[in-house]
Every structure is written in structure tokens, then in C-alpha cells.
């Protein structure tokens, strides 16, 4: 990383937003989760095997 490079205001804001997201991660059963939900769109996939391929909605209890 070039230590002489000065971040722009937009880059500083993005970096601070990312640090906030990362600081909220929770470890559950050995895996790390974002309590605010998925960061990217979720879609059905062929793996893991045995999981239904159709889209499912999960709501907090």
C-alpha cells in the first residue's frame, strides 16, 4: 500500500462504513454472520446437496 497516497473523502467514508459492518459480525457455531442480513442478493444454488433448490424466505422468530 502506498503510504503517500491520500484517501479522498468518499474513500474515507467507504472505509469507515466497512469498518462499522465488520465490527458487527457475530460468530455463531463456528461461522461468522452479519446480523443485518446478506450483503449481496441471495439465490438458489445446487449446493449444498440435500437443500431444496427453490428460493426460501427466513424470518427471525
From TrEMBL:
<feature type="region of interest" description="Disordered">
    <location>
        <begin position="41"/>
        <end position="61"/>
    </location>
</feature>
<protein>
    <submittedName>
        <fullName>Uncharacterized protein</fullName>
    </submittedName>
</protein>
Amino acid at each position: 500500500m502506498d503510504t503517500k497516497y491520500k484517501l479522498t473523502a468518499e474513500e474515507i467514508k467507504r472505509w469507515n462504513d466497512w469498518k462499522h459492518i465488520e465490527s458487527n459480525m457475530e460468530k455463531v457455531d463456528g461461522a461468522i454472520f452479519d446480523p443485518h442480513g446478506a450483503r449481496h442478493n441471495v439465490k438458489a444454488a445446487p449446493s449444498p446437496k440435500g437443500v431444496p433448490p427453490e428460493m426460501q424466505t427466513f424470518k427471525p422468530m
